[in-house]
Structures are given as structure tokens and as C-alpha cells.
């Protein structure tokens, strides 16, 4: 069955709503407009205005409504247009949703799923294009997911709906049109990283929109005789250290690809963990391919120049080897 | 306060095990005195102290292996009063005998005189592999990013060493324990370790040093006749061997042609001030060492003969001194007694030259247009082309020939 990422997210939401009447969807333009990225097209007609709620442009308000609804027995899915806008809702997510179970000594849980678009590449400029996944990955009490494949776009959302605690899902804007042949869309786990390509020489670690770029780079490097393993982190919090370290022990070289800026990035966290847990396996310094430290430019050539690209990944991999033999 | 550190007893040594302390706190030490015995991969070496002073504190217990540059003991300068003891954050190893192997402390505060301006760059996995494969990192040149030594470099070196050693190297990761080992076990381990370190040093030499080779046939009749006359007046034990003439000739020639006497580092060639000729001595259990006879050009033949006899005996007994291991500025190898006509040596880095002598034998030579039979020896020079050129090498070898024709001046 040929399908795409957008349809997979759509189907996951629709299937969740059909399976459980407590599931509701709320967010800006999710109803009449069918979703900023057309994920919820047709849902208003199928499920009605009670369950598909268009909200005002007030992230603090409607994310708070989602948290409150979850506390009171619903299973809300909240769509935030981009991660940039979610900063207005940080208080609800960080101070309320993530901490409620802890502060109530386990009496209250917040089974909310907050979906948001992230990332650049569509010329949406500096207020709609950033990658702030690591801001959320920093917070205990929430699970942070970054599906990078069509199967995960469906599967991780379905599994997240069953989680009794808050889950934040990042959908990279560059992935919505990604299509794939999937036999059957099924729930997938939300605890482990996945090896998307096995290799012996270098481990490329990526997530979200950087996964296809890493796979692309791995293809090019294979032509140059360098055999890359590509790890899709999938779960940004809690990180799956075991999969990462197993790969490092095999390849001894690591490039971390992250569309966030270098400084304080998830790539930095992954690098630190590798140094802590697998230092004696490293045969070269860990390299990072992140976004140039500027607000994402609007101009297409500047935007592309700022972002991680397969060429930059290829160059970083070559940098792990001296002039010696491999 | 004087810090007495683990010396580097050759370019291929990066750690050593303290075998014996020959002084204790409170002892007065004079410059040149042997204060400790250190076990290297090659031999148990007596370590001299190059300061006058009074032993203050022994910091490394017997049986512990430490990196080159580690402070082994502190000495008070003559007249110095003991100050407050060392800050406690400095591991005072003397207090507790470690039960488990302890990682060698970082070489501080005086790191070994590395030719590069920074700590040897070795990837973590390469360092770990080197430890378990018994590869000496100092002998490798890195091929990784920024010239770092990588896992591949270590594995390659280990494979090369293994190839040259019929017997496998000693079991990896020998724990540094204070437990005594049997003598046989020790000597077997040392033999394998020596094989590995010879393999590493020679591999490095052939990898890094662009050797060039020159040879000459030297007529020895004058020298041997002169020597026979000299020895006639001496008791058997005082007799001088022809090898000593060769040794002195090499020392004098090395003084005249300084570019063959010294060390090649990254910054280039550094001539040495004295002529300390390393004499290749094969050991009975296999392997070889090339400890120095110091200041060869300054010594009489009688002194050199005594030095050589003493050195060979001690080398075979495994009790060389640190200065003998680390000081050679040029090497002499003589395989004449093994019956070969000539030998072309492999330079021991960071030295830049090795002179070889084969078997003195009666050979047909042409002298002044006439054919006659003379006793000759084939002399060879293997030299580092980075430090010298063939034309100078030819003059150097010719100088050795000239000196051997005038034995009375040796």
C-alpha cells in the first residue's frame, strides 16, 4: 500500500477517534480548514464539531484546555502549528502537564498528545522554521517523539494515545509528502531507536527530517567505500542509549546530525552520552552536523545553506578519517 | 625539591615497572648514583639519579608500572629543609600498595621529551587496543584525523609485529600486580615483549626513515699487525679485540661528521654533543639490545675494551643502566663473529645512522696495481637521508677506513 506521511498521521488520528470516543482534536484551523498541513482534512465532517475543535490563536489557552481536558478524562490530541508557536504554551507543557503526576504523588495523570510541526526547508523564515525539539527533550515527565518514517507517523501516534502521560510529537514539515510502500499501518513502539541502515565504518545518528538526509549521505558514502550505519533516534526523550552504544562499539566513529543549532543541542546530549558510556570505543572525535547558528533565513539558497545537508554529512564523515587507510 | 621521574629508556618505552628501590628516605644521593631498578620490555635497567640530594619520599611502590615522566621520588636539594608534604590531592602511591591495577597517572609535571609539541594523540579505542595487543604507541605514526593514532594503526602494527614473531605476544592486558612472578615466567614474558618492541621500533624505522646504504672494503692488515704487537705485551684478559678498534674509529668519525651522530625529531636533526656508540648485543634468549658506550671518542682503547666487556656481560645478565639504554647517538653492529661478510643495518629511531662490520677474512685485493691477499672487512653505513646525503656518508665511511689504517692514533 503506497501512502504518505500526511495520510499516515491523518489515519492515526482518525483511527484513534473511531476506537475511543474520549479522543478529541483541537488546534488552530484543524476543523474547517482541515489543518495547516492538511492532516485533519475531512475530520470535521466525520466526527463533528464536538470532537474537532477550531481554537483561537492562543497557544497558551488551547494547550491549557487540552491539559485540563486530559486531567478530566478525555484523551485530547492538540495540534500546534509550529514548534516556534509552542513557546507560548511552554508554561502549560513544562509547568503543568509534565509535572502533574509528580506533584500529585501519582494521583493525576495527563494523557495528552501534543503534535507540532517542526523544522525548516519550506521558506517559512525565522518564526516558523526552527527545530526546538531539545527544549522539550530536556523536560522530565514527558515523552518526546520524532517519527521519521511513514510507518512511524502512524504507529507512534497510535501508541502515544495509549500513554497515560504527556507525549509531544514532532512532525518535520519536510516529511509530510514523504511516501512509502507500507503493508499495513500498525502501532509502533515509542521507546527505542531504530537502525535504518546497517554499516560497519561510521554511525550516523539523526532524527526527524534529518533521517532521510543521513540515509542519502550514507548512499553517497557507500559509493566512496565508507559503510555507514544510520540510527533514527525516534524517541528523543528518553534517549535509547543502548542502540546508540551498540552501534558505536561496532563502528567506533560517530556523526550526529541535528537540524537544531549546535549549541546546547540534542546532538550535544547524544555526544556527551557517547563520551560518557563509550569513550574507549571511539576512534575519532565525534562530529556534529547541525544548523548554522543563525535564525533560519527566508531566502531559499540561504535557508538551504544554513541547514544540515547530505553534502555536509559526507564531508563530516570524511573528516573522521585521516589520510590513512580505512 | 627535586623530582625524580621515570626516565624514557629509549624511544620505544612509555612505561616501566619499578623493580627495586636501592635508596630509602633520608639517604644521600650523589649524581650518577644508581637508585632504582626498572623493568622495561627489554631488560631490568638500573636507573641513575642525576642530582645530588637527600631522598625525601618514595612515591611509587615496588611492583607498580608507571608512565614515563611519572615522579618516582622526591629529593631535597643539598641544604634544603623538608617543607610541608605533598598536597593530598596528588596520589601518594607510597601510602598504599594498590591491590587492583591502577591506571598509570598522567605523566606530569615533566612529560617525556616527545618530539611533538603535545601529548601523543591516540584515539581512545586505539589506546585500549594498544594496551591489549602490546603495541608501543610511541613507535607508531598516526594516520587518523590530525595525525592521531587510530585503531587501524594499532591493529596494523600488531599484525606486523605478529608476523615477525613466530611466537604470539604475551597474554594481553598483563595486570600490573605486585605479586612476584616466577623467573621463567618473567623471562618468557620479557622475551615476547622484547620481540614486540623490536618489531615496533624496526617497523617504525623502515616506515619513517629513508635509509641509504654505502659499503666499503677496509684492509685490516696494518691494524691487526699493530694490535698483535700491542697485545703481545698484555695479559690475556687485557687484550684488545679488533672490534674495539672499529668502535673507536666509529666514535672518532662520528665526532668529525656530526650529521651521523644525533637524533631526528619532527623539528629536524639535532646533533648530539658526545659520541655515545650503541653496541648491538644479541642476547642468549633471543632478541638484542644496543646500549651505549659513552664518550667513545674520548676514551682509550684500554678503557673501551673494559667498557665493552662489562657492557656485554651486563646486557646478557639483564642489568643495564638507564643512561646506557637512552643515550646512544649512533649504533654499531658487528656480525663478523657470526660469519657473515657484510651487514646492512636498520637504523634505531630516532638515531640517524648505523655502521655495520662483517667478518674479517683473507680476501684477494688489488693494491698499487698488484694482486695480493689481505685481511679485509666489509664496512657498511645505513644512514637517514633526511639528516645526511650520500656524499657525506661516503666521506664518513672513508674516515673510518682512514682511521683503521692508523691504529696508533686510535
Short description:
The complex is a heterodimer of chains A (about 325) and B (about 400). Chain A is about 35% helix and about 20% strand.
CATH topology of the largest domain in chain A: Rossmann fold
Q: Return the average pLDDT of chain B rounded to an integer.
A: 82
Structural class of chain A: alpha/beta
Average pLDDT value of chain A? 96
- By secondary-structure content and strand pairing, the structural class of chain B works out as alpha+beta
Q: Greatest interface and its residue counts? A: A-B, 16 and 17 residues
Strand order of the largest sheet of chain A: 3-2-4-5-7-6-12
Could you say which overall geometry of chain B the principal axes of the C-alpha atoms support? globular
CATH class of the largest domain in chain A: Alpha Beta
Total count of helical runs of at least 4 residues of chain A? 13
Report low-confidence residues of chain B grouped into runs of 5 or more.
85-114, 165-178
**What distance separates the N and C termini of chain B?**
44 Å
Description:
The complex is a heterodimer of chains A (326) and B (410). Chain A is built from 13 helices and 14 strands. Chain A has helices at 5-19, 43-47, 59-71, 83-86, 90-97, 100-103, 133-137, 150-161, 210-223, 241-251, 266-278, 300-306, 310-319; strands at 2-4, 23-27, 52-54, 75-80, 113-118, 143-145, 167-172, 179-181, 194-197, 202-206, 228-232, 235-237, 254-261, 287-291. Chain A has a 7-stranded mixed beta sheet, with helices on both faces. A 5-stranded mixed beta sheet of chain A has the order 9-11-10-13-14, sandwiched between helices. A two-stranded antiparallel ribbon of chain A has the order 1-8. In chain A, helix 11 (266-278) links the parallel strand 13 and strand 14 (287-291). In chain A, helix 1 (5-19) packs parallel to helix 8. The model of chain A has no long low-confidence stretch (mean pLDDT 96). In chain B, helix 2 (151-164) packs across helix 3 (183-208), helix 5 (242-256) crosses helix 6 (301-317) and helix 5 (242-256) crosses helix 8. The model of chain B is unreliable at 85-114 and 165-178 (pLDDT under 50). The chains are: A alpha/beta (326), B alpha+beta (410).
Amino acid at each position: 500500500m503506497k501512502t504518505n506521511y500526511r495520510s499516515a498521521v491523518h489515519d492515526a488520528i482518525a483511527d484513534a477517534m473511531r476506537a475511543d470516543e474520549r479522543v478529541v482534536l483541537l488546534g488552530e484551523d484543524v476543523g474547517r480548514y482541515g489543518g495547516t498541513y492538511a492532516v485533519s482534512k475531512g475530520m470535521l465532517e466525520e466526527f463533528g464539531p464536538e470532537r474537532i475543535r477550531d481554537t483561537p490563536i492562543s497557544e497558551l489557552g488551547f494547550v491549557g484546555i487540552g491539559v485540563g481536558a486530559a486531567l478530566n478524562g478525555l484523551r485530547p490530541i492538540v495540534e500546534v502549528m509550529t514548534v516556534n508557536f509552542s513557546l507560548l504554551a511552554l508554561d502549560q507543557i513544562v509547568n503543568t502537564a509534565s509535572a502533574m503526576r509528580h506533584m500529585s504523588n501519582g494521583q493525576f495523570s495527563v494523557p495528552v498528545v501534543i503534535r507540532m510541526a517542526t523544522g525548516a526547508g519550506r521558506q517559512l523564515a525565522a518564526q516558523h522554521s526552527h527545530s526546538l525539539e531539545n527544549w522539550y527533550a530536556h523536560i522530565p515527565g514527558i515523552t518526546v517523539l520524532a517519527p521519521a518514517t511513514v510507518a512511524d507517523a502512524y504507529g507512534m501516534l497510535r501508541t502515544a494515545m495509549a500513554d497515560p502521560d504527556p507525549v509531544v510529537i514532532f512532525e518535520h514539515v519536510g516529511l509530510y509528502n514523504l511516501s512509502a510502500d507500507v503493508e499495513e499501518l500498525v502501532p509502533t513502539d515509542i521507546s527505542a531507536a531504530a537502525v535504518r541502515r546497517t554499516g560497519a565504518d561510521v554511525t550516523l545518528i539523526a532524527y526527524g527530517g534529518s533521517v532521510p538526509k543521513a540515509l542519502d549521505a550514507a548512499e553517497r558514502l557507500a559509493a566512496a567505500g565508507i559503510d555507514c550505519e544510520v540510527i533514527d533516534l525516534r524517541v528523543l526523550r528518553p534517549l535509547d542509549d543502548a542502540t546508540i552504544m551498540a552501534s558505536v562499539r561496532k563502528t567506533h566513529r560517530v556523526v550526529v546530525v541535528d537540524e537544531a543549532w549546535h549549541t546546547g543541542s540534542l546532538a550535544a546530549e547524544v555526544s556527551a552520552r557517547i563520551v560518557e558510556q563509550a569513550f574507549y570505543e571511539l576512534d575519532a572525535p565525534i562530529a556534529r552536523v547541525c544548523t548554522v547558528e543563525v535564525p533560519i533565513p527566508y531566502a531559499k539558497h540561504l535557508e538551504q545553506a544554513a541547514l544540515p545537508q547530505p553534502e555536509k554529512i559526507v564531508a563530516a564523515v570524511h573528516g573522521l578519517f585521516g589520510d590513512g587507510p580505512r | 625539591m627535586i623530582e625524580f621521574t621515570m626516565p624514557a629508556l629509549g624511544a620505544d618505552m612509555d612505561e616501566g615497572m619499578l623493580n627495586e628501590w636501592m635508596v630509602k628516605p633520608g639517604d644521600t644521593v650523589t649524581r650518577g648514583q644508581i637508585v632504582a631498578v626498572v623493568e622495561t620490555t627489554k631488560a631490568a635497567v638500573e636507573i641513575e639519579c642525576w642530582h645530588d640530594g637527600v631522598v625525601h619520599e618514595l612515591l611509587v611502590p615496588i611492583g607498580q608500572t608507571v608512565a614515563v615522566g611519572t615522579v618516582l621520588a622526591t629529593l631535597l636539594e643539598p641544604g634544603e629543609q623538608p617543607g610541608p608534604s605533598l598536597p593530598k590531592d596528588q596520589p601518594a602511591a607510597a601510602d598504599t600498595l594498590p591491590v587492583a591495577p591502577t591506571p598509570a597517572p598522567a605523566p606530569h609535571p615533566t612529560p617525556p621529551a616527545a618530539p611533538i609539541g603535545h601529548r601523543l594523540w591516540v584515539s581512545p579505542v586505539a589506546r585500549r587496543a594498544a594496551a591489549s595487543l602490546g603495541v608501543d604507541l610511541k613507535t607508531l605514526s598516526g594516520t587518523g584525523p590530525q595525525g592521531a593514532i587510530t585503531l587501524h594503526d594499532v591493529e596494523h602494527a600488531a599484525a606486523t609485529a605478529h608476523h615477525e614473531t613466530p611466537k604470539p605476544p604475551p597474554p594481553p592486558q598483563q595486570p600490573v600486580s605486585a605479586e612476584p612472578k616466577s623467573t621463567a615466567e618473567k623471562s618468557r614474558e620479557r622475551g615476547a615483549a622484547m620481540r614486540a618492541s623490536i618489531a615496533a621500533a624496526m617497523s617504525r624505522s623502515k616506515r619513517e626513515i629513508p635509509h641509504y646504504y654505502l659499503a666499503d672494503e677496509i684492509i685490516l692488515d696494518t691494524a691487526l699487525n699493530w694490535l698483535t704487537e700491542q697485545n703481545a705485551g698484555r695479559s690475556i684478559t687485557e687484550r684488545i679485540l679488533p672490534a674495539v678498534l672499529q668502535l673507536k674509529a666509529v666514535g672518532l668519525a662520528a665526532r668529525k661528521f656530526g650529521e651521523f651522530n644525533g637524533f631526528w625529531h619532527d623539528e629536524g636533526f639535532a646533533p648530539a654533543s658526545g659520541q655515545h656508540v650503541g653496541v648491538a648485543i644479541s642476547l642468549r634468549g633471543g632478541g638484542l639490545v644496543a646500549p651505549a658506550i659513552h664518550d667513545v671518542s674520548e676514551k682509550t682503547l684500554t678503557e673501551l675494551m673494559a667498557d665493552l666487556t662489562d657492557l656485554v656481560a651486563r646486557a646478557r645478565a639483564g642489568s643495564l643502566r638507564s643512561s646506557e639504554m637512552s643515550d646512544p647517538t649512533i649504533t654499531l653492529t658487528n656480525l663478523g663473529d657470526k660469519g657473515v661478510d657484510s651487514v646492512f643495518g636498520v637504523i634505531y629511531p630516532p638515531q640517524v645512522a648505523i655502521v655495520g662490520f662483517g667478518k674479517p677474512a683473507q680476501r684477494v685485493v688489488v693494491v698499487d696495481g698488484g694482486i695480493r691477499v689481505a685481511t679485509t672487512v666489509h664496512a657498511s653505513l645505513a644512514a637517514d637521508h633526511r639528516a645526511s646525503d650520500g656524499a657525506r656518508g661516503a666521506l664518513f665511511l672513508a674516515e673510518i677506513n682512514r682511521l683503521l689504517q692508523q691504529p696508533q692514533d686510535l
